[in-house]
């Protein structure tokens, strides 16, 4: 029986018991005294068999099998030295071996973008919404043109990419920090798999920054939009804004809303029982009377308008009504949050309505209200003297 040339092994040195993670290695069998070990990944004990079936590892196995087959066809001596000549280096015209493009058997010229894309698709069970966020980051990485290959993963290039992101002017510090967080996930995988020599983020520190202060509409401003008279598309746009402002739904969740399957009645009030597309967290929120009126107007099936078009037309309404704040889909959600808190709905219940996983997110709105209270008291006190 012919011996298998390339075999997958897990945790050969028994480190998984101590660290929880072991190496996935390939044994390259060339001859009885010529065996080479190549690390191709790391995994937990109960996950390594699945990881070993990944596209990247299966591709490496086929590649090494092909090299061995070629060596046999050429009748080369089956030694590690000859194998390395084909896999770890390039033969220059002068006959010398060039190892400059390889680290630990991995070609540093391979695309980092492709690695991220393939790894996330084959090794991770990402929700569609989460995958879209990662794909956005990968695309920005590709667009910058700064980090193309594994060899480009240096602290200098990471900082250059950060500067490029800031130069675009359309993303804040918090968003850019999130981009780095997602990219770091894959540089760490490469480093732990011994596919790159340095984890570049170990030498780069970025501040998370702070979110821009939210500017939700006051109840009076929302009522102003609600009472305005419009026809045609502007009328539908205004109605969708009102629905979001009186349910707290984000645009993507409103687009998926189905009255028949996602609502339940308690007393005289209808509630939406759903799951946020963005985070997967559950929410349970009332359909307040103005939002219910919108549903009745459209026979309980909301009109469909894209997020971009909806925001474009909301800016027209903003200008028409001379509202000195941004009027967007997301502002409708912010306005719902502050409305709930201004009517003393407990912050925990408000968080449940909005589907916030962390109550700290909801507390941002409470801080806004506190600021408004101080402003009002500053006006009131002088009048009471």
Account of the protein in words:
The protein has 385 residues and is α+β, with helices and mostly antiparallel strands. The chain folds into three domains: 6-91, no CATH class; 112-203; 219-383, Orthogonal Bundle (hpI Integrase, Chain A). It is 51% helix and 13% strand. It contains 17 helices and ten strands. It has helices at residues 16-19, 48-51, 55-73, 80-87, 112-122, 128-144, 155-167, 173-192, 219-227, 232-245, 251-255, 259-262, 289-297, 307-320, 329-342, 347-354, 359-383, and strands at 6-10, 22-31, 34-43, 90-91, 97-98, 102-103, 106-107, 263-266, 269-275, 282-286. A three-stranded antiparallel β-sheet has the order 1-2-3. A three-stranded antiparallel β-sheet has the order 8-9-10. Strand 6 (102-103) and strand 7 form a beta hairpin. Helix 3 (55-73) packs across helix 4. The N and C termini lie far apart (102 Å). The mean pLDDT is 85.
């Amino acid at each position: 029986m012919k011996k298998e040339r390339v075999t997958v092994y897990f945790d050969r040195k028994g480190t998984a018991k101590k660290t929880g993670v072991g190496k996935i290695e390939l044994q390259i069998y060339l001859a009885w005294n010529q065996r080479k070990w190549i690390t191709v990944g790391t995994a937990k004990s109960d996950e390594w068999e699945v990881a070993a079936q990944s596209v990247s590892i299966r591709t490496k196995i086929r590649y090494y099998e092909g090299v061995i087959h070629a060596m046999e066809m050429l009748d080369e001596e089956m030694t590690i030295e000859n194998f390395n000549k084909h896999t770890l280096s390039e033969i220059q015209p002068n006959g010398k071996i060039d190892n400059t493009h390889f680290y630990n058997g991995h070609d540093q010229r391979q695309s980092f973008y492709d690695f991220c894309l393939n790894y996330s698709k084959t090794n991770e069970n990402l929700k569609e919404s989460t995958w879209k966020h990662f794909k956005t980051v990968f695309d920005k990485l590709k667009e910058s043109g700064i980090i193309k290959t594994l060899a480009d993963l240096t602290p200098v290039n990471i900082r250059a990419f950060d500067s490029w992101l800031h130069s675009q002017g359309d993303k804040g510090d918090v968003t850019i920090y999130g981009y780095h967080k997602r990219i770091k996930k894959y540089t760490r995988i490469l480093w732990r798999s011994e596919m790159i020599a340095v984890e570049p983020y170990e030498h780069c520190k970025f501040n998370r920054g702070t979110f821009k202060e939210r500017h939700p509409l006051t109840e009076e401003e929302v009522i102003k939009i609600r009472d305005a008279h419009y026809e045609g598309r502007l009328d539908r746009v205004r109605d969708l804004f009102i629905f979001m402002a009186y349910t707290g739904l984000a645009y993507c969740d409103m687009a998926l809303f189905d009255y028949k399957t996602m609502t339940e009645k308690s007393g005289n009030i209808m509630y939406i029982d759903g799951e946020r597309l963005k985070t997967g967290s559950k929410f349970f929120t009332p359909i307040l009377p103005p939002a219910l009126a919108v549903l009745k107007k459209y026979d309980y099936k909301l009109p469909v308008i894209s997020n971009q078009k909806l925001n474009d037309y909301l800016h027209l309404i903003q200008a028409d009504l001379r509202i000195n704040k941004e009027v967007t889909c997301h502002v409708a959600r912010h306005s719902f949050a502050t409305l709930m808190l201004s009517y003393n709905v407990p912050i925990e219940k408000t968080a449940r309505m909005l589907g916030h996983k962390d109550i700290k997110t909801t507390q941002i709105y409470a801080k806004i209200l506190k600021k408004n209270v101080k402003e009002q008291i500053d006006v009131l006190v002088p009048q009471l003297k």
